[in-house]
TrEMBL record:
UniProt-annotated binding residues for pyridoxal 5'-phosphate: L105, T106, F133, P134, S135, D136, D218, H221, Y243, W274, N302
The protein's name: Kynureninase
Cofactor: pyridoxal 5'-phosphate
Reaction(s) the record says it catalyses: L-kynurenine + H2O = anthranilate + L-alanine + H(+); 3-hydroxy-L-kynurenine + H2O = 3-hydroxyanthranilate + L-alanine + H(+)
PANTHER family associated with the record: KYNURENINASE
Pfam families for the chain: KYNU_C
A biological process from GO: quinolinate biosynthetic process
Gene3D superfamilies cross-referenced by the UniProt entry: Aspartate Aminotransferase, domain 1, Type I PLP-dependent aspartate aminotransferase-like (Major domain)
NCBIfam families: kynureninase
Family: Belongs to the kynureninase family.
Pathway connected to this protein: Cofactor biosynthesis; NAD(+) biosynthesis; quinolinate from L-kynurenine: step 2/3; Amino-acid degradation; L-kynurenine degradation; L-alanine and anthranilate from L-kynurenine: step 1/1
GO cellular component: cytoplasm
EC numbers, comma separated: 3.7.1.3
Amino acid sequence: MIFENTLEFAKKLDSQDQLHKYQDEFIFPQVNGKKVIYFTGNSLGLQPKRTKAYVDEVMNDWANLAVEGHFYSEKPWWDYHERFANPLSKIVGALSSEVTVMNTLTVNLHLLMVSFYRPTKTRYKIICEEKAFPSDQYMFQSQVHFHGYKPEDVIVEIKRREGEHNIRLEDVLAKIEEVGDELALVLIGGVNYYTGQVFDMKTITAAGHKVGAYVGWDLAHAAGNVKLELHDWDIDFAAWCSYKYMNSGPGNASGCFIHEKHHNNSELPRFAGWWGHNKERRFKMEQTFDPVHGADGWQISNLPVLSLAPYLASVDMFDEIGMDALIQKRNAITSYLEFILHEIDKEVDSSFEIITPSNQSERASQLSVLLHGEGRSLFDYLMKNGVITDWREPNVIRLAPVPLYTSYEDMYMFGQILKAGILDKANL
């Protein structure tokens, strides 16, 4: 498609967009009395309007049924999490038995490492990407210390080449082969939070398995954003938060994937708790742990139903739409944003460098932009004028045009506000 940097063209694209109506499903903050242009769904998604009804249902059941709500509410609390199995399995490309919801993201990664990071004297190293999200870095370091090793002896970071912003696939594969028989675990973010680079999870997973390592993925920026086939890619485990692209609310529950090939492995250790115990015998209060078959067997505590309700509201919306439709719009609107940035770049003295890969297979709903010649003042201008975006030092803004609630008109208007912010500074 040949794009145009005009309001009329943007409105034409919106009129042809089958998902455009979903903007009305969300609540937008307002700045200066106008709905904001929201680019930070990669940090916290907007609140769906339907969320309140899901939460109110739980609150009303609690008020009217009290403890009996566990069994007699419309969505009984004791198996509330089971409603996620089918729709979540479609979102991440899994069998329904391979997914569950519990805890929060880093907690779940720690718990999964109990099962899948089992260092020996000869096989103990972990491969991750350079500049992984800090929580992952802290997790790796603490896990390594827990097992009696030093991080510098265990953690192997795959680095970017000098002068490049993204990690090359061939460098990941070469490092896996180099570490070889010493490699216990590959655990990488499926989408790098800073650059927006999407990794080739299928190829990397196969390479890790070839040298005898487990392979897991932190899908915080991938779930609900990227086409995933976790089962078919033979990934051992994965976890993701739900409050970014899946709009479940701040700090909300995490999703987990454990491949079915591990479900019957009694040799695989796990931390156990009541809610992972055989569902049919759970209330017999037996002393010996008998895990639920499937990913639910990794659960520990009973689920926070008030937290799950917003997540279920969002998952139901995803089930209505389907990932294929979301990704089709994601690709189109991200490309239009890229076009707008290049057009504005021609009209101002500053220059923009998009550090997210230009290859569509290596990016998703995020463009990270280096603003050469600009500083924090431009970010402040955008925020004051109704563009909610994210600033990362030294001069990067992250823009995530989430297909569920951003419009092509938003992309055009952002370009005009961005240009005005740069020109206003130049005229001072």
